[in-house]
């Protein structure tokens, strides 16, 4: 018997590879998993589970993934809902330079309307649009950017947050059955946090008044060996700490933060392509808009690899660029697939919904049923990113549904809907460097900005966190750290003037 808690060595690289993204975090941060598992036979390079994907090899078959994450449901805990303001109407950017008007509203407005929160769209502000520099420009409207914005706002420091997508959240994407962002839906990006190990998340969830519940895990775990579609059944063992989810989905944390920020300080659909640094401060140039944004300081709340793609003048030193490019964006190489059902039928057969497979295309599956009872199974796709693109979404989804049928029975073959998001194919998350499964960002203290930009530019993406890089907690840690630095600077400037 081999313990599943010890990840298996890669046959190719000789390094320890743990394909279970969530488990990996727990392993690194000291989580305990008391689970033992029969050692699988060495798998041959395996083919996909169904037609259309037959030439694809799953990550696990190529590098030796391991099954190591299990856990029964712990007590479900619901806390009172968040404070929400009444919805306001959506404004549009006025036509400039003869261009058609552009809405700053994204799908997040629909999300927030459902959540009874106001829109987060706003017009171009005079302060940011030309009359004077904004004190802090935040690039990136994911959890890190919004955390930084909230801290600055609470300290009374003006900011402008720009986000390239037409929605907030970045890697956090909670979608409904139709695939659009929803106030109560399925997490196509992150699903879990681990109380105690990620105190930043615990604190923010409590502060925002969000409800959390334990990942469902009652029942048996299935294991599908290479070349043997019929699954083996094992008891689930307790995982400590339990993986926790947010009621409504992780999008709830984004909606709650956005609701606390002034709508006119957030601009969606605004991609920064170039940043120049002169005597007077920073000038950020947009990818498709002539008017630049002047700022005294810029917080780059995005993965360092994406920052490396923004043209900086003057150029950072080679060592700084190497650090940015060499920092993997956590989970960027991965894809998630969901199958939605009218009820969690697998529970009738005593199954937890958790499964691990050496056959693929899904390598790690879980019950994704929402706190409100919308039933679903989800899985991480184990097919490498370039092969997923080659096969196409439909083939990957069809093969995944076929595999769910092998594991959970014929009822799994007819989902009400399927959802699929390939993060490696999303250029606002992944770069060419993220197409191969990557390592976890290293964390620790780093000189992220380099000497040339140190006084004007601060990195704040989750990957730059010291303690919990790559995680939701890392985004909070990095966003708070960046805001704290600027709050200190502003306080020092104020006292120097007095
Ligand atoms: C599939 C998946 C599963 C995951 N599971 C977990 C989990 O279970 N638990 C956990 O803790 N973490 C998990 N993570 C990681 C977690 O999602 C991230 O740590 C966190 O969301 C990062 O937030 P961020 O704000 O630092 O970066 P991002 O969310 O990447 O936000 C960066 C923002 O910058 C924007 N942007 C990029 N370039 C520009 C530009 N030029 N101009 C303007 N805006 C720009 C992007 O559109 C994006 O909105 C998962 C991630 C993925 C993809």
Automatic annotation (TrEMBL):
| Domain (Amine oxidase) ranges | 238-487
Superkingdom of the organism of origin:
Bacteria
- GO molecular function, a single term: oxidoreductase activity
Q: Where is the composition biased (Low complexity)?
A: 95-106
List every stretch annotated Disordered.
29-49, 78-106
Q: Which family does it belong to?
A: Belongs to the flavin monoamine oxidase family.
Q: What is the name attached to this protein's record?
A: Amine oxidase
Q: Native species of this protein? A: Paracoccus thiocyanatus
């Amino acid at each position: 018997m081999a313990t599943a808690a010890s990840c298996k060595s890669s046959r190719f690289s000789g390094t320890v590879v743990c394909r279970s993204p969530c488990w990996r975090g727990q392993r690194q941060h000291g989580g305990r998993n008391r689970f033992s598992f029969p050692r699988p036979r060495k798998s041959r390079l395996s083919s996909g589970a169904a037609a259309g994907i037959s030439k694809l090899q799953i990550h696990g078959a190529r590098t030796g993934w391991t099954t190591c994450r299990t856990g029964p449901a712990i007590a479900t805990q619901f806390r009172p809902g968040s404070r929400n303001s009444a919805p306001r109407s959506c404004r549009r950017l006025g036509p400039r330079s003869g261009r058609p008007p552009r809405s700053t509203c994204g799908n997040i407005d629909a999300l927030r309307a459902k959540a009874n929160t106001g829109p987060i769209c706003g017009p171009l502000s005079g302060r940011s649009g030309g009359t004077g520099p904004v004190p802090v420009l935040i690039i990136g409207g994911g959890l890190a950017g919004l955390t930084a914005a909230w801290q600055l706002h609470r300290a009374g420091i003006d900011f402008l947050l720009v986000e390239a997508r037409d929605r907030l959240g970045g890697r956090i994407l909670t979608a409904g059955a139709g695939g659009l962002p929803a106030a109560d839906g399925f997490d196509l990006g992150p699903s879990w946090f681990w109380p105690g190990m990620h105190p930043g998340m615990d604190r923010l969830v409590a502060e925002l008044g969000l409800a959390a519940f334990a990942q469902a895990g009652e029942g048996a775990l299935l294991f599908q060996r290479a070349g043997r579609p019929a699954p083996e059944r094992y008891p689930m063992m307790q995982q400590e700490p339990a993986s926790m989810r947010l009621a409504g989905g992780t999008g709830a944390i984004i909606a709650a933060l956005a609701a606390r920020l002034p709508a006119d300080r957030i601009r969606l659909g605004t991609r920064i392509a170039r940043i120049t640094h002169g005597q007077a401060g920073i000038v950020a140039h947009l990818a498709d808009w002539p008017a630049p944004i002047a700022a005294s300081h810029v917080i780059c709340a995005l993965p360092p690899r994406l920052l490396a793609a923004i043209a900086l003048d003057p150029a950072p030193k080679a060592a700084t660029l190497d650090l940015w490019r060499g920092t993997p964006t956590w989970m960027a190489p991965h894809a998630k697939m969901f199958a939605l059902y009218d009820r969690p039928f697998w529970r009738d057969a005593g199954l937890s919904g958790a499964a691990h497979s050496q056959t693929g295309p899904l390598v790690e599956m879980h019950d994704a049923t929402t706190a409100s009872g919308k039933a679903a199974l989800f899985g991480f796709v184990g097919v490498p990113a370039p092969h997923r693109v080659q096969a196409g979404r439909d083939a990957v989804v069809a093969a995944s549904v076929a595999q769910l049928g092998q594991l959970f029975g014929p009822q799994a073959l007819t989902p009400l809907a399927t959802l699929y998001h390939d993060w490696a194919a999303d250029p606002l998350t992944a770069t060419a460097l993220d197409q191969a499964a990557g390592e976890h960002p290293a964390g620790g203290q780093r000189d992220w900005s380099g000497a040339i930009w140190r006084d004007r530019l601060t990195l704040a993406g989750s990957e730059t966190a010291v303690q919990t890089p790559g995680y939701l907690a890392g985004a909070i840690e990095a966003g708070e750290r960046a805001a704290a630095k600027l709050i200190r600077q502003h306080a020092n400037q104020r006292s120097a003037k007095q």
